[in-house]
């Protein structure tokens, strides 16, 4: 049983989703930490994992998209990693805000702390799975991150009704709406990146 009278460290509370997902969901539903504890105690550090791993892997091994590894200048990798980190945090907070807005429609709890806790819970497997960025081979990353994405989807669909206190049917609809928002945001970001790169605004690649 994860619940206790003494508050646990947020990283431990969210990390439990990897081994005991239902207990972690129930614990967050009954004892949701404050927004500050979620953000500064867990989300900030989990969000740091992907860009940090990517920075180390890219500077040491280079990205492997084909036969030859692709290297970027160290300063460029640092700038991209910083932007990556900022985008992850913006995405986390914006998704929590959208979840709070949707909660009214789906009869869920509108507490921002619960919405932020849910989004952080869902993102935990992806943050941990990003360790594969230490060896940034495109195919290896795909093989590892697809199962972690599936685990995050499971946490979203199962955890939303528990954490946000709504019935499973409405929770499923709200979870699907959140996925639609994330996909639209991701595709928009890809399009903007492609346009900027086409205009010559982007890193120079060296092999």
Number of strands: 2
- Unreliable spans: 1-6
Largest β-sheet summary:
2 strands, antiparallel
Number of domains: 1
What is the general shape?
A: globular
Strand content: under 5%
- Span of the ends, CA to CA: 52 Å
Radius of gyration: 18 Å
Strand order within the widest sheet?
A: 1-2
Structure annotation, total helices: 7
Helices and strands, in N-to-C order?
HHHEEHHHH
Average pLDDT: 86
**What structural class do helix, strand and pairing data support?**
mainly alpha
What percent of residues adopt helix (DSSP H or I)? over 70%
Task: Walk me through the structure.
- It is globular and about 50 Å long.
- The chain has helices at residues 10-15, 21-30, 35-60, 74-105, 112-129, 138-163, 168-198, and strands at 63-64, 69-70.
- 72% of the residues lie in helices and 2% in strands.
- It has 207 residues and is mainly alpha-helical.
- The protein has a two-stranded antiparallel sheet with strand order 1-2.
- A hairpin with a 4-residue loop joins strand 1 (63-64) and strand 2 (69-70).
- It has seven helices and two strands, in the order H-H-H-E-E-H-H-H-H.
Structural key phrases:
mainly alpha, 207 residues, 7 helices, globular
Write the SSE topology.
Blueprint: H1 10-15, H2 21-30, H3 35-60, E1 63-64, E2 69-70, H4 74-105, H5 112-129, H6 138-163, H7 168-198
Antiparallel strand pairs: 1-2
């Amino acid at each position: 049983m994860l619940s206790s009278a003494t508050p646990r460290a947020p990283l431990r509370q969210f990390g439990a989703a990897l081994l005991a997902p239902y207990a972690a969901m129930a614990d967050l539903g009954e004892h949701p930490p404050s927004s500050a504890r979620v953000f500064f105690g867990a989300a900030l550090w989990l969000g740091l994992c992907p860009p940090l791993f990517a920075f180390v892997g890219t500077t040491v091994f280079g990205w492997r998209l084909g036969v030859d590894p692709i290297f970027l200048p160290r300063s460029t990798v640092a700038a991209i990693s910083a932007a990556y980190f900022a985008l992850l945090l913006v995405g986390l907070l914006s998704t929590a805000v959208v979840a709070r807005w949707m909660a009214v429609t789906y009869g869920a709890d509108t507490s921002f702390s619960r919405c932020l806790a849910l989004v952080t819970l869902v993102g935990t497997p992806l943050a941990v799975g990003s360790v594969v960025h230490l060896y940034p081979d495109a195919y290896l990353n795909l093989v590892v991150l697809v199962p972690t994405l599936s685990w995050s989807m499971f946490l979203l669909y199962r955890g939303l009704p528990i954490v946000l206190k709504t019935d499973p049917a409405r929770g499923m609809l709200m979870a699907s709406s959140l996925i639609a928002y994330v996909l639209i945001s991701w595709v928009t970001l890809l399009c903007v990146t492609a346009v900027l790169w086409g205009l010559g605004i982007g890193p120079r690649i060296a092999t």
